[in-house]
Amino acid sequence: EVQLVESGGGLVQPGESLRLSCAASGFTFSNYWMGWVRQAPGKGLEWVANIKHDGSEKYYVDSVKGRFTISRDNAKSSLYLQVNSLRAEDTAVYFCARDSSTNNWSNYFDYWGQGALVTVSS
Amino acid sequence: DIQMTQSPSSLSASVGDRVTITCRASQGISSWLAWYQQKPEEAPKSLIYKASNLQSGVPSRFSGSGSGTDFTLTISSLQPEDFATYYCQQYADYPRTFGGGTKVEIK
Questions:
Q1: Residues B63-90: pLDDT tens digits?
Q2: How far apart are CA B7 and CA A61, in angstroms?
Q3: Do A59 and B97 touch (CB under 8 A)?
Q4: Please, are residues A5 and A115 in contact by the beta-carbon 8 Å criterion?
Q5: Mapping DSSP to helix (H, G, I), strand (E, B) and coil, where does residue A88 land?
Q6: Is there a contact between B43 and A114 if contact means CB atoms under 8 Å apart?
Q7: Residue B55 to residue A110, Cβ atoms within 8 A
Q8: Is the Cβ–Cβ distance between B90 and B25 less than 8 Å?
Q9: Is B89 helix (H, G, I), strand (E, B) or coil?
Q10: How far is A46 from chain B (nearest CA, A)?
Q11: pLDDT tens digits for chain A (122 residues)?
């Protein structure tokens, strides 16, 4: 059974940083693209970032470029999102998601974690 | 960026009703479209990929169609567990973009 478990969320002040983690199990993590999607309170889904199975390609939504960094440790079956210079508008539940693709182009998300809440407030 | 526009943003329906949700892309995306279902306080769940392919384990009352810029998600006979918010998402290009969501409520 595919499982994705996020951790690392919390309450932070504007300008601070956090590192979100996603522990994966139930599949060969190193074969799949992975991604992060966020959802602000009461709002819709927003794609944040994707990373290729070997970490060689990374893509970001413009609003987080230069502030967020997606990474992975295939030996630990873990996905990360380093979030820096946080703003109030970054307040959201951050979902870790497995991309269905094991090849050179990412596809849709077939499995999702339960999410980690990040609240940015002074 | 490719904009995804869903309609309606909400609808009220009864158990047994046929429900159709539309999603329009601002430019052609071939069939690179997915549909997700999200219930309150839960993670999204994949329903349909490549516009018309049913994700494993999803009931056959769900179906998707379309290509290019216009897509539909149809629930042939609405069940109590189908009351949720539905999102389309294009994966033809970066940035990946979602529609604004359609909330299906009980009439």
A1: 999 999 999 999 999 999 999 999 999 9
A2: 24
A3: no
A4: no
A5: helix
A6: yes
A7: yes
A8: yes
A9: strand
A10: 7
A11: 999 999 999 999 999 999 999 999 999 999 999 999 999 999 999 999 999 999 999 999 999 999 999 999 999 999 999 999 999 999 999 999 999 998 889 899 999 999 999 999 99
Closest Cα in chain B to A113: B43
Q: How far, in Å, CA of B18 to CA of B96, rounded?
A: 29
Q: Which residues pair with A79 in a beta bridge?
A: A22, A72
Instruction: Give how far A57 is from chain B: nearest CA, Å.
Output: 12
CB–CB of A115/A39 below 8 Å?
A: yes
If we measure between CA atoms, which residue out of A67, A99, A72 comes closest to residue A85? A67
Q: Which chain B residue is nearest to residue A6, measuring alpha carbons?
A: B43
Q: Is the peptide bond preceding residue B80 cis, with omega within 30 degrees of 0?
A: no
Please answer yes or no on whether B101 and A113 come within 8 Å at the CB atom: no
Q: Across the interface, do A45 and B98 touch by the CB < 8 Å criterion?
A: yes
Q: What 3-state class would DSSP assign to B11?
A: strand
Mutation target to probe the A interface, by most A beta carbons within 10 A, among B45, B91, B93, B97 is B91
Q: Which helix (H) or strand (E) holds B67?
A: strand B62-67
C-alpha to C-alpha distance for A47 and A29, rounded to whole angstroms: 20
Q: Give the burial class of B41: count Cβ atoms within 10 A of its Cβ; 0-12 exposed, 13-18 middle, 19 or more buried.
A: exposed
CB contact under 8 A, A113 and B87: no
